[in-house]
Design brief:
The chain contains seven helices and eleven strands. By secondary structure, it is of the alpha/beta class. It has a single domain (4-223), classed as Spore Coat Polysaccharide Biosynthesis Protein SpsA, Chain A, CATH 3.90.550.10. It has a seven-stranded mixed sheet with strand order 5-4-1-6-10-7-11, with helices on both faces. The protein is globular.
C-alpha cells in the first residue's frame, strides 16, 4: 500500500473573510481545518498529516488534532509569504519513506475520504493526479473589457485539491521552481513546468473552497 504524506495548506490570510481566519473558523461545531484532517485520517494510504500554518496557530492546530483523534498528525510548519512557500516549508517535514505527496487546501473542508482515495489510486497509476470538475458555464477570455475568445467548454475543468504526486516528481517540480524563481498558486503547475502530465480525477461540486463569508454559509447548508 502506498505511503502518502499529506500537506494541508492553512497559512492563508483573511483578506476576503472580513478578518476571520477561515481555516480556524467554526463550521457546525468544528473548526474548518478539522474536517479535512478527519477525511485524510480515514484514508488507509495516508501515513502522515502535516499542516502548513502560521506559527501563532500551531498550538491551536495541535489541540484540534488531539480533540478529533487525528493520530496521523505529525506537526505544523511555519507559513511563508505565499502558498507555495508555505508548502515548501512543510515539505521539509515529510518522512523519507513517503512515496507520494498530497497537497490540500484547508479551506476545502468538504472533501471526502472516497474522493481522496480515488485521487490516490489515479496518482499511483499516472504518477500525478488532482481532483476537479467540469465547468458548467461558458467561459470567455477578456482583454480591456472586450471579449476576445470562447474556449471549448468540454476541455475546461475547475481544479480542486488534493493534488497528489509521486514524491520524486513533486521534488523535481519544487527544485525547478526554486532554481528559476517561479511561484505558482497551484501545485499542478509545479509538475507541468517540468513536463509531468497530471491526471484529472473527477470530483464533486460540493468540494468547494471557502473564500468569502458567503462560502461558509454554503458549506453549512451542504453539511446539512
Amino acid at each position: 500500500m502506498s505511503k502518502v504524506s499529506v500537506i494541508i495548506a492553512a497559512a492563508g490570510n483573511a483578506e476576503r473573510m472580513n478578518g476571520i481566519h477561515k481555516q480556524l473558523a467554526m463550521l457546525k461545531g468544528k473548526p474548518v481545518l478539522a474536517y479535512s484532517m478527519i477525511a485524510f485520517q480515514a484514508v488507509p494510504q495516508v501515513s502522515e498529516i502535516i499542516i502548513a500554518a502560521r506559527e501563532c496557530d500551531a498550538d491551536i492546530i495541535t489541540n484540534i488534532a488531539r480533540e478529533n483523534g487525528i493520530d496521523k498528525f505529525v506537526g505544523c510548519s511555519g507559513g511563508g509569504d505565499t502558498r507555495q512557500q508555505s508548502v515548501l516549508g512543510a515539505l521539509r517535514m515529510v518522512s523519507e519513506d513517503a512515496e507520494y505527496i498530497a497537497v490540500h487546501d484547508a479551506a476545502r473542508p468538504l472533501v471526502t475520504a472516497d474522493e481522496i482515495s480515488r485521487c490516490i489510486e489515479d496518482a499511483a497509476h499516472f504518477g500525478a493526479s488532482a481532483l476537479g470538475v467540469p465547468v458548467k458555464d461558458t467561459i470567455k477570455t477578456v482583454e480591456g473589457g472586450i471579449i476576445t475568445g470562447t474556449p471549448d467548454r468540454s476541455t475546461l475543468y475547475i481544479t480542486q485539491t488534493p493534488q497528489i504526486f509521486k514524491k520524486e516528481y513533486y521534488i523535481r517540480g519544487v527544485e525547478n521552481a526554486s532554481a528559476h524563481g517561479l511561484d505558482f498558486t497551484d501545485d499542478c503547475q509545479l509538475a507541468e513546468a517540468v513536463g509531468i502530465r497530471v491526471n484529472m480525477t473527477l470530483s464533486s461540486y460540493t468540494n468547494i473552497k471557502i473564500t468569502t463569508p458567503e462560502d461558509m454559509q454554503i458549506a453549512e447548508l451542504l453539511l446539512r
